[in-house]
Design goal:
Low-confidence stretches: 169-173
Radius of gyration: 26 Å
Strand order of the largest sheet: 4-3-9-10
CATH topology of one domain: Four Helix Bundle (Hemerythrin (Met), subunit A)
Strand content: 5-15%
CATH architecture of one domain: Up-down Bundle
Mean pLDDT: 93
Bound molecules: adenosine monophosphate, zinc ion
Helix content: 40-55%
Length: 469
C-alpha cells in the first residue's frame, strides 16, 4: 500500500509503526454551524482510508477531534445570548447526525478540546522548560518558532521567506512577540469569553496545541497517519509538528495526508466566503450515499468542483450498483437450490479479478476513482452472467462481491436494494402513528425516506397506498 506523504512529496510504501495496527489522527471541524460539504470531504475520504485499511486486516485506532472553543463559537453564542457550550454541544450533535447519514463511522475517540485543557497546559509547560516557549508581559504564551530547526519541513517553506512575510507584525508592535514567526500557545481571557486557570494567566489555548495534545493522549507520541484538508498544512500542521516534536523529542507522524478542496465555481467552498451547501441542504435533494459516491468519484488529492451535473452522474452511478444488487436479490429469491456448476465456479473466479483491480487502485494512494470503476466492471459482469436458471450460490457469490467492495467505500447498497414490502409497511405504520401524535416532522421524514428509496405514498380515503416508482 502506497501513500502520498506531504512531508516527502512522494508516494511511500506504508509501513506501520506497530505491526498490524494503524494510529491515525484526523483534524475535525470547529463546531459553530452545520457542516458544509467541503468539511464532509475529509470525513468521507479518511473514513474510506480507514475502511480500506480495516479490509486489509489492520486494526485502526482513529481519533478525530471537535474544536469546541474558538472565536467563531463565542461570536455565535453572543449572538444567541447563550453559553458557548450550548452552541458547541448543539453542533457536535448535528455533525454526528450528518456523519451517520453519510455512513462515516464514528471515530474510536472524538475528543473535545475543552476536556483536554490540563494536557495542553502540561505540554506548554514542557515547551517552556525546554526553552521552546515564553510568556509575554500580557500573559500570552508563544512558541519560539526559530528554535525548532525543522520548522517548514511539511509545507516546504523557508523560514527566511516567512520572516519577510511577517515583518509587518513585528514593526507594528501590536504583538508582544520576540519574533514575527512565533505563534500563540495560550492567550489571556477577554471579557465575556470562556477561560481556564493556568500558570501564566486565566485564558484559553491557541488552536494548534489541542491536536498535538489529543493525538499524544489517545495515540501516543508517534503516530502513523495525520490527516486533514490541504488548508491545514500551513500553519496548523506545521505548528503541530513543531509543538509535538519539540515537546516529545520524537517524530510526530510518519505520513501526512491532505485532501484537496471541494470547490464551487472553482473556488474553495467555505463558510466565510458564503459559497457553501450544508450536508443538510444536499440531503433535501439526494440520498447522502450519492454525496458519498460523488466525493469518491475523484482522487482525494484532486480538486473537485461541485455541480448539479456531477451529482446527477453520481446518482446514476450509485443507482447502477443498487439496481444490480436488487436484480440479484430478485433472482436469488427465485433460484432453484442447485449446486454451483463448474462453469459458475469459473465465472466467480473471473469476477475475482475485479476485486484484485479494486485493491490495486486503492493500494495506489487510495485511488477511489479507479476503485469505483472496478466496481462498475464487476456490476457489468454480474449483469451479463446473472439470470434465470443460475444457482442461488452463484448469484449470491456475485452479490457478496459487489457488496463487499461497496462496503469498503462505505456505500450502502444492500439496505437500499433490499427494502422489503414488510419494511415499507412498517414505516408507513410508523408514519400514521406520528401523524396521529401530530409529529408532522417525523411523518414528513418517513415520507422522504421512502421516496428516496423509490417508494411513493398516496393518502386516500381508504388509507395509505404505496407503489414502487
Ligand atoms: P474547519 O471546520 O474549517 O476547521 O474544517 C474542518 C475540516 O474540513 C478541515 O480538515 C478542513 O481542511 C476541511 N475543509 C474545509 N473546507 C474544505 C473544502 N472546501 N474542501 C475540502 N476540505 C475542506
Ligand atoms: Zn488539528
Amino acid at each position: 500500500m502506497r501513500i502520498y506523504n506531504t512531508l516527502s512529496k512522494q508516494k511511500e510504501e506504508f509501513v506501520p509503526i506497530e505491526e498490524g495496527k494503524v494510529r491515525m489522527y484526523v483534524c475535525g471541524p470547529t463546531v459553530y454551524n452545520l457542516i458544509h460539504i467541503g468539511n464532509a470531504r475529509p470525513m468521507i475520504v479518511f473514513d474510506t482510508v480507514r475502511r480500506y485499511m480495516e479490509h486489509k486486516g489492520f486494526e485502526v485506532n482513529y481519533v478525530s477531534n471537535f474544536t469546541d472553543v474558538d472565536d467563531k463559537i463565542i461570536k455565535k453564542a453572543v449572538e444567541e445570548g447563550v453559553d458557548s457550550t450550548v452552541i458547541s454541544k448543539r453542533y457536535i450533535e448535528e455533525c454526528k447526525k450528518d456523519m451517520a447519514a453519510m455512513n462515516v463511522k464514528p471515530a474510536t475517540v472524538h475528543p473535545l478540546a475543552t476536556n483536554e485543557i490540563d494536557g495542553m497546559c502540561d505540554m506548554i509547560e514542557t515547551l517552556m522548560e525546554k526553552g521552546y516557549a515564553y510568556k509575554a508581559e500580557d500573559g500570552t504564551v508563544y512558541f519560539r518558532t526559530r528554535c525548532f530547526k525543522e520548522y517548514g519541513k511539511l509545507s516546504h517553506k523557508n523560514l527566511d521567506d516567512l520572516q519577510g512575510g511577517n515583518r509587518e507584525l513585528l514593526v507594528s508592535g501590536a504583538e508582544q512577540k520576540e519574533d514575527g514567526l512565533d505563534f500563540v500557545l495560550w492567550k489571556p481571557k477577554k471579557e465575556g469569553e470562556p477561560y481556564w486557570e493556568s500558570p501564566w494567566c486565566s485564558g484559553r489555548p491557541g488552536w494548534h496545541i489541542e491536536c498535538s495534545v489529543m493525538s499524544k493522549k489517545y495515540l501516543g507520541d508517534e503516530i502513523d497517519i495525520h490527516a486533514g484538508g490541504e488548508d491545514l498544512v500551513f500553519p496548523h500542521h506545521e505548528n503541530e509538528i513543531a509543538q509535538s516534536e519539540a515537546a516529545n523529542g520524537k517524530t510526530f507522524a510518519k505520513y501526512w495526508m491532505h485532501n484537496a478542496f471541494l470547490n464551487i465555481d472553482n473556488r474553495k467552498m467555505s463558510k466565510s466566503a458564503g459559497n457553501f451547501f450544508t450536508v443538510r441542504d444536499i440531503s433535501e435533494k439526494y440520498d447522502l450515499q450519492v454525496l458519498r459516491f460523488f466525493m469518491l468519484s475523484a482522487h482525494y488529492r484532486s480538486p473537485l468542483n461541485f455541480s448539479g451535473e456531477l451529482m446527477e452522474a453520481a446518482k446514476s452511478g450509485y443507482e447502477r450498483i443498487v439496481t444490480s444488487v436488487s436484480n440479484l436479490n430478485y433472482l436469488i429469491g427465485n433460484a432453484a437450490d442447485a449446486a454451483v456448476s463448474e462453469e459458475e465456479e469459473n465465472l466467480l473466479r473471473e469476477a475475482g479479478t475485479f476485486e484484485a483491480k479494486f485493491d490495486e487502485a486503492m493500494d495506489d494512494d487510495f485511488n477511489t476513482a479507479d476503485a469505483l470503476a472496478a466496481i462498475f466492471e464487476l456490476v457489468k459482469f454480474a449483469n451479463t452472467y446473472a439470470g434465470e436458471g443460475r444457482s442461488a450460490g452463484f448469484l449470491k457469490g456475485l452479490k457478496d462481491k459487489i457488496i463487499a467492495l461497496s462496503d469498503i467505500c462505505g456505500l450502502i447498497v444492500e439496505k437500499e436494494a433490499g427494502l422489503l414490502d414488510a419494511d415499507v409497511e412498517s414505516l408507513i405504520a410508523e408514519r400514521q402513528e406520528a401523524r396521529k401524535a401530530k409529529n408532522f416532522a417525523r411523518a414528513d421524514e418517513i415520507r422522504k425516506e421512502l421516496s428516496d428509496k423509490g417508494i411513493l405514498l398516496e393518502d386516500t380515503r381508504e388509507g395509505v397506498k404505496w407503489k414502487r416508482a
